[in-house]
């Protein structure tokens, strides 16, 4: 298959995706009675999430806050389709994720959601450019397109001069910006950030938050999980989770 | 994901753990190497024997008493010279029939003694067999009729007894009887482990008197062409069966010999290849093992890739390609060293080695298949990893 064909097909798929039912005007996330339980090795059942109802609109900037063990990370993993709920319904852009198989779910993660993790999760021994281009690899984008878009994404986070650097050659703040560039490169509609400033000092944390705010102004919904009150205060909406339930939503 | 991309990632992963990759490959390399070398030796042996048989001469039928076949016990011969005359009449062309009486005896010149295979034969031997002379002459009818005490020496016997001296006209002693050397054969090598250069030919009549028995060991008939072989063989067998109704006779042709020997040596080659194949299998287990370690080590990476949109089959492909790459690179190195080893064996040892293309193709194919077979389980394990669990691993 030629590069052009691939690129052409990609655009077709995207057009198809936006034509899916409920895609237009549907909220980014809609959770109804979402629960998640799992068993520890000892057989003890843990109810990490005990029924969450939540609606996050397109372009929102929301913070999920709560003490550790409250279920906020579990909620985020469910929203990001990294995990499947035990019960309840989750619609992402109006699509019920329970109806999606592994491949479609992967596609949803690839095209709709960008992830930023507390510990960056960059591939070691791999340049910033290749790290950022990784999501495009799974879309079958040709190499030239991948490199071009990865470069643009890195420039957007102010790392245009660090393209060939490896994670080990960069500061924590720079690594997190690479991770944000990677989350952005596929033009997602939602960015999920799990304690994005947790491993950074206040100056770098500030820089990352500024970046997330700018992205949100550009129309991307940002949902971040944090237990840092200052970080949470930057979001326009705060969703407080406690003991597996949404305690307050302001 | 594109294959080129997956391949690039696999190369990178193998490069990162260079020593480990090399050691894992070593198992495959040794397996492939032994397949190539052992098949080369088996094939070389087969080719050498076939060449020896062909080197006897063309279109030969060997008539011996009893059954000839694998595991058949040697039969006491009842044939004598009158039977040779009888076969001559059956065949029609007397010059195309010759005879052999064999016995092992020491041959002495002064203090030098050599153990040689005495073969009593006649003047027709060179019409049936390919046996060029280096010096001197063949036996004549008169030699046979008058029981002359003359010998023709195989090249090795001549060299051992006389060294650089020309043996023609000189005396050798066999079982206390003195013989005059009338010829020396060219070096012809051995057939069926019979070192033909260690033979000493003498008139069949002289040989019978020396051994003290009127028997002969076999009759050889030369057919005029390949198409003549089978009808002639049947005629000779039928004639002998009519003459001796209680006895069995066998007339073997070169084609039959080639077939039998070829089957045996082909089986041998197969067994050797199978043994080598087992070591290739062991190499495959090593690949499987190391891939499982690799999947465990890279759990976090797999989780991340899934979070970024890798499907189960992308991950499966990545690890499978890695395993196959490991075994096929090992396979290529094994083939190269195997071919090199076979050439070396051929060059420096008496073991004939002949490289066959099918063993190379087979070795490569099997090593690739081993990669798929032993890579599937680890790759599936990787593909099934739950992204959340994988990302949580630290």
Automatic annotation (TrEMBL), chain A:
Region described as Disordered: 1-23
Pfam families the UniProt entry points to: ABC_tran
GO MF annotation list: ATP binding; ATP hydrolysis activity; transmembrane transporter activity
Compositionally skewed regions (Basic and acidic residues) per UniProt: 1-17
Domain ABC transporter: 29-250
GO CC terms, sorted: membrane protein complex; plasma membrane
InterPro entries: AAA+_ATPase, ABC_transporter-like_ATP-bd, ABC_transporter-like_CS, ABC_transpr_LolD-like, MacB-like_ATP-bd, P-loop_NTPase
Keywords: ATP-binding, Nucleotide-binding, Transport
Listed PANTHER family: ABC TRANSPORTER ABCH.1, IMPORT ATP-BINDING PROTEIN
Name this polypeptide is given: ABC transporter ATP-binding protein
Annotated organism of origin: Microbispora hainanensis
UniProtKB/TrEMBL annotation, chain B:
PANTHER family: ABC TRANSPORTER PERMEASE YTRF, MEMBRANE COMPONENT OF TRANSPORTER-RELATED
UniProt keyword annotation of Methyltransferase present: no
Taxonomic source organism: Microbispora hainanensis
Protein location: Cell membrane
Alphabetized InterPro entries for the sequence: ABC3_permease_C (IPR003838), MacB_PCD (IPR025857), Macrolide_Exporter_MacB (IPR050250)
Family: Belongs to the ABC-4 integral membrane protein family.
Pfam families registered for this protein in UniProt: FtsX (PF02687), MacB_PCD (PF12704)
GO cellular component, one term: plasma membrane
Residues of the MacB-like periplasmic core domain: 21-238
Residue ranges of the TM segments: 21-41, 264-295, 316-345, 357-377
ABC3 transporter permease C-terminal domain location: 274-387
Membrane protein topology class: Multi-pass membrane protein
Source domain of life: Bacteria
Main subcellular location of this protein, as a coarse class: membrane
Keywords for this protein: Cell membrane, Membrane, Transmembrane, Transmembrane helix
Molecular function terms from GO: transmembrane transporter activity
Protein name: FtsX-like permease family protein
Keyword Electron transport part of the UniProt annotation: no
């Amino acid at each position: 298959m030629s590069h052009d064909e691939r690129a052409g097909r990609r655009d077709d798929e995207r057009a198809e995706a936006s034509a899916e039912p409920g895609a237009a005007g549907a909220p980014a996330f809609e959770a109804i009675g979402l629960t998640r339980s799992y068993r520890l090795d000892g057989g003890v059942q843990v109810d990490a999430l005990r029924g969450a109802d939540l609606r996050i609109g397109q372009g929102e900037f929301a913070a999920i806050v709560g003490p550790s063990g409250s279920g906020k990370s579990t909620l985020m993993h469910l929203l990001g389709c990294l995990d499947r709920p035990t019960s309840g319904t989750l619609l992402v852009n109006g699509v019920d994720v329970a109806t999606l198989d592994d491949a479609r779910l992967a596609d949803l993660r690839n095209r709709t959601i960008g992830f930023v993790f507390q510990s960056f999760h960059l591939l070691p021994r791999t340049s910033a450019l290749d790290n950022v281009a990784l999501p495009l690899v799974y879309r079958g984008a040709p190499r030239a397109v991948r490199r071009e878009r990865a470069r643009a994404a890195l420039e957007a986070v102010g790392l245009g001069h660090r393209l060939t650097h490896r994670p080990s050659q960069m500061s924590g703040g720079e690594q997190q910006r690479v991770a944000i560039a990677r989350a952005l490169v596929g033009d997602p509609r939602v960015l999920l950030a799990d304690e994005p400033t947790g491993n950074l000092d206040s100056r770098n944390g500030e820089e990352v938050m500024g970046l997330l705010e700018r992205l949100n102004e550009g129309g991307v919904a940002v949902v971040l999980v944090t237990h840092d009150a200052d970080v949470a205060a930057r979001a326009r909406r705060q969703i407080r989770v406690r003991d597996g339930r949404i305690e307050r939503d302001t | 994901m594109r294959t080129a991309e997956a391949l690039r990632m696999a190369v990178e992963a193998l490069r990162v753990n260079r020593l480990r990759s090399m050691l894992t490959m070593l198992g495959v390399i040794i397996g492939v190497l032994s397949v190539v070398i052992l098949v080369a030796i088996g094939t070389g042996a087969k080719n050498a024997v076939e060449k020896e048989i062909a080197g006897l001469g063309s279109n030969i039928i060997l008539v011996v008493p009893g059954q000839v076949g694998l595991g058949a016990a040697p039969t006491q011969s009842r044939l004598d010279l009158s039977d040779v005359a009888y076969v001559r009449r059956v065949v029609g062309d007397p010059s195309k029939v010759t005879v052999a009486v064999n016995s092992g005896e020491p041959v002495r010149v002064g203090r030098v003694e050599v153990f040689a295979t005495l073969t009593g034969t006649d003047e027709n031997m060179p019409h049936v067999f390919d046996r060029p002379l280096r010096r001197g002459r063949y036996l004549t009818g008169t030699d046979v009729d008058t029981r002359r005490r003359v010998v023709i020496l195989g090249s090795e016997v001549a060299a051992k007894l006389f060294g650089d001296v020309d043996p023609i006209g000189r005396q050798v002693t066999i079982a206390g009887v003195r013989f005059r050397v009338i010829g020396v054969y060219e070096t012809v090598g051995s057939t069926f482990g019979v070192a033909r250069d260690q033979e000493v030919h003498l008139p069949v009549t002289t040989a019978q008197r020396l051994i003290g028995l009127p028997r002969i060991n076999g009759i050889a008939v030369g057919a005029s062409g390949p198409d003549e072989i089978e009808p002639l063989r049947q005629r000779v067998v039928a004639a002998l069966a009519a003459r001796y109704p209680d006895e069995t006779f066998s007339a073997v042709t070169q084609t039959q010999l080639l077939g039998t020997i070829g089957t045996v040596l082909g089986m041998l080659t197969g067994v050797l290849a199978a043994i080598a194949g087992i070591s290739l299998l062991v190499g495959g287990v090593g690949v499987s093992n190391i891939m499982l370690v690799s999947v465990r080590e890279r759990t976090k990476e797999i989780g991340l890739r899934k979070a970024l949109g890798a499907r189960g089959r992308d991950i499966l492909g990545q690890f499978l390609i890695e395993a196959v790459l490991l075994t096929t690179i090992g396979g290529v190195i094994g083939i190269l060293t195997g071919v090199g080893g076979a050439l070396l064996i051929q060059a420096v040892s008496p073991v004939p080695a002949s490289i066959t293309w099918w063993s190379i193709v087979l070795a490569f194919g099997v090593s690739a298949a081993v990669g798929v077979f032993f890579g599937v389980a680890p790759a599936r394990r990787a593909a099934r990893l739950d992204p959340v669990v994988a990302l949580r691993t630290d």
